[in-house]
TrEMBL record:
It is an enzyme of class 1 (oxidoreductase). Residues 1-75 are annotated as: Disordered. Keywords: Heme, Hydrogen peroxide, Iron, Metal-binding, Oxidoreductase, Peroxidase. Decomposes hydrogen peroxide into water and oxygen; serves to protect cells from the toxic effects of hydrogen peroxide. Residues 58-68 have a biased composition (Polar residues). PROSITE patterns: CATALASE_1 (PS00437), CATALASE_2 (PS00438), CATALASE_3 (PS51402). This is Catalase. It comes from the Bacteria. The keyword Heme applies. Residues 84-472 form the Catalase core domain. Residues 10-26 have a biased composition (Basic and acidic residues). InterPro entries: Catalase, Catalase_AS, Catalase_clade2, Catalase_clade2_helical, Catalase_core, Catalase_haem_BS, Catalase_immune_responsive, Catalase_large_C.
Length: 756
């Protein structure tokens, strides 16, 4: 039995209720390809397909019209021990075309060749224009019932459990781009409620670049690769992006969030989510309330350093999707609390002087606290990426009774765009019938035919009114669960204008800057300097410095110095908002569930101590990876990484069980990380490099035995912040775990005095 996680805080009874729901056994070290290990020789004895791994599942089995089928999910997968055609005909050979003799021409009658190539030629569908790069998981949402007084939505009643499917994504990159680029992240949740599908389609940043949806093509065209060369991929560090945002200053607030650590999250599991817009909730009595939705991760909000993100893009471009899948397979199920900021539904839709319809503005949590209304846990990986993660279709207009939209002009465009895009991507209007999109409530929509119609409709009268089908389907009243739009007053002249409140583009950007800790400010300065330094046009850099001058003089001056340009003066008075502690990622303690700890060891180490530390890491709900000079076994311990294959960016902390001598492959011609090894080096240079990288990325380091030699060779002081040296491995691990609860040892590198 696993011991309790020594740094994991207790959770309330609702959290316990969610985590008790029949989870599969966790994998000790996640990531194996299949549910059974392969044989050395090619299998020849026919057998049924292997079952999925315990952490994997497909969509729940509902019919195309939302009726529960009761079928095992395995019935949705292919079966049978023998290869067949798509029509179920068994095939004796799939390696050779049908020919007129061994060297003769291929015959047109080869139906298997034609079918196989035809299907292959059409395997791909158009990727999403934005949010193409994504990862997803199944889970469950359990409502606390605390929102029942402000919404009649059934899934938000007390104790109601709702299946969910969540997709995380980057915005700008193609499907083949890297996970750790600096970008906004999508956070889209599909709730399969008893009243129909509800989609909360948000981002990890609470504001957006634009205030009106008609500008969406512009901001995306500016952020995408330049159309002449199709570069750079998945990046904002180029002229067209900065040309746009420096001219279109309503993008300033979102851009600043992107240049902060929020633009490079450590993990999808450690990322906030926001609904961005203000929504209108309706309770059972018809009273309305305005709200903003927030997802708060139980593991805290953490990020990568910029150097780490760049390194990971080359070392493991699938870093975020691997992290999510591995954590679920290892039993470290990520959790988020759903909360709402609540505002009165006043005629002007303002709150404390903040326009609630402006998607470039936040309401600080000090003014409107986030009130928890439920807990979501992701506990099952998809069994097929294409069928689930790629074909899932979200839409901001998938609403349920009790949740309505507001007049946010960005939201209005989304209500059209999300639906429209599926016609091209998923081949027609019947995309809700794809298994991952099917509602878990009965469907009787009178919609018929079209591409990919999977339902077999009955009746002769798909119209209303009718008598030939007995009048069915009938209209529902509000008391029968019908969706009823809020009868809001609508009046005004037809104009292409924005309200005066939308003209403030800098005060909330300054609020964000003033809310950052000194180390976060340093990272923002570095991000702007890097991104603008990648631009070719001097005018673009100078124009953006004018924007920064209206945020903060220190930010502007430091970026200007890095670019070798003069710092301009602000063009308008600087706002003096009260900082919001909720915007900073630094200063609190968090659980370490699912974190990865590298343990460096070789045959000269005390392997019993290494084994005890490994077990303690597992018992704490984290993943230990042993790093040794070569693969295979280290005594009785399995080796997961070697000095050749390991890189520091994979680990949240590094433990040194000793100071391994240089391995036989520690020379530059074999492994460039080894460099030109000096004759007097007593520690493998790749271990030294790992220690140096972990140290400068402000991660925790622990060592025992002869580890001090490795620290010394890496130039790491034993007394440095975030470094734990001791006589026994388990004592060192306890110290390191305490440091990991803070995420990083940021005090290792003090910021400049004028930035603090």
């Amino acid at each position: 039995m696993s011991e309790p996680n020594p740094i994991k805080s207790a959770v309330d009874k609702v959290v316990d209720a969610v985590t008790e729901h029949g989870h599969p056994p966790k994998a000790e070290i996640p990531g194996v390809p299949n549910s059974e290990p392969p044989s050395l020789d090619q299998p020849t004895e026919p057998r049924e397909p292997l079952p999925p791994k315990p952490d994997q599942t497909g969509p729940d089995t509902f019919s195309p019209t939302g009726q529960p089928t009761g079928a095992d999910q395995a019935a949705m997968a292919q079966g049978g021990a023998f290869l067949t055609s798509a029509q179920g005909v068994r095939l004796r050979d799939t390696d050779h075309s049908l020919k007129a003799g061994p060297r003769g021409p291929v015959l047109l009658q080869d139906f298997h060749l034609r079918e196989k190539i035809m299907h292959f030629d059409h395997e791909r569908i158009p990727e999403r224009v934005v949010h193409a790069r994504g990862a997803a998981a199944h889970g469950v949402f359990r409502s606390y019932g605390t929102a029942a007084n402000i919404t009649r939505a059934a899934f938000l009643a007390e104790g109601v459990e709702t299946p969910v499917f969540v997709r995380f994504s980057t915005v700008l990159g193609s499907r083949g781009s890297a996970d750790t680029v600096r970008d906004t992240r999508g956070f889209a949740t599909k709730f399969y409620t008893s009243e129909g599908v509800y989609d909360l389609v948000g981002n990890n940043i609470p504001v957006f670049f634009i205030q009106d949806g008609i500008k969406f093509p512009d901001v995306i065209h500016a952020g995408k690769p330049h159309p002449d060369r199709e570069i750079p991929q998945a990046q904002s560090a180029h002229d067209t992006f900065w040309d746009f945002v420096s001219l279109h200053t309503e993008a300033t607030h979102h851009t600043l969030w992107n240049m902060s650590d929020r633009g490079i999250p450590r993990s999808y599991r450690m990322m906030e989510g926001f609904g961005v817009h203000t929504f209108r909730l309706v309770n059972a009595e018809g009273a309305t309330t305005l709200v903003k939705f927030h997802w708060k991760p139980k593991l805290g909000v953490h990020s990568l350093t910029w150097e780490e993100a760049q390194m990971i893009s080359g070392v493991d471009p699938d870093y975020h999707r691997r992290d999510l899948a591995d954590a679920i397979e290892a039993g470290a199920y990520p959790q988020w609390e759903l909360g709402v900021q609540v505002f009165p539904d006043t005629p002007d839709q303002m709150f404390e002087g903040i326009d609630l319809l402006d998607p470039t503005k936040i309401v600080p949590e000090e003014l409107a606290p986030v009130q928890p209304i439920g807990l979501m846990e992701l506990n099952r990986n998809p069994s097929n990426y294409f069928a689930e993660t790629e074909q899932v279709a979200f839409h901001a207009g998938h609403l349920v009774p009790g949740i309505d939209v507001t007049d946010d002009p960005l939201l209005a465009a989304r209500l059209f765009s999300y639906l429209d895009t599926q016609l091209t991507r998923l081949g027609g209007p019947n995309f809700p019938q794809i298994p991952i999109n099917r509602p878990h409530a009965p469907v009787n929509d009178m919609l018929r035919d079209g591409f990919h119609q999977d339902a077999v409709h009955r009746g002769v009268a798909p119209y209303k009114p009718n008598s030939l089908d007995g009048g069915c389907p009938f209209h529902a009243g509000a008391g029968e669960g019908a969706y009823v739009e809020v009868p809001a007053e609508v009046a005004g002249r037809k104009v292409r204008e924005a309200p005066a409140s939308y003209a403030d583009h800098f005060s909330q950007a300054r609020l964000f800057w003033l809310s950052m800790s000194p180390v976060e400010r340093e990272h923002i300065i570095d991000a702007y300097t890097f991104e603008l330094g990648k631009c070719y046009e001097q005018a673009v850099k100078e124009r953006q410095l004018r924007v920064l001058a209206n945020i903060d003089p220190v930010l502007c001056r430091e970026v200007a110095q890095g670019l070798g340009l003069p710092a301009p003066e602000p063009s308008e008075p600087l706002a003096e908002p009260m900082p919001s502690r909720a915007l900073s990622q630094v200063g609190r303690e968090w659980p370490g569930d699912g974190r990865i700890i590298g343990i460096v060891a070789d045959d000269s180490c005390d392997l019993a101590s290494v084994g005890a530390v490994r077990q303690a890491v597992l018992a704490a709900g984290m993943v230990p990876l042993i790093i040794a000079p070569k693969g295979g076994m280290l005594g009785t311990l399995p080796v997961q990484r070697t000095f050749l294959t390991a890189r520091s960016v994979e680990f949240d902390a590094l433990l040194l069980a000793g100071a391994p001598m240089p391995g036989k492959d520690a020379y530059g011609a074999r492994d460039a990380k080894a460099g030109n090894r000096l004759a007097d080096e007593v520690v493998d240079p790749r271990v030294v490099l790992m220690v140096m990288e972990v140290y400068r990325h402000a991660k925790a380091i622990g060592g025992w035995g002869t580890a001090v030699r490795a620290l010394a060779q890496a130039g790491v002081p034993e007394q440095a912040p975030g470094v734990v040296v001791g006589d026994d491995g388990e004592g060192v691990l306890r110290g390191v775990m305490g440091l990991m609860s803070l995420h990083r040892a940021w005090d290792r590198f003090p910021p400049a005095a004028d930035v603090a």
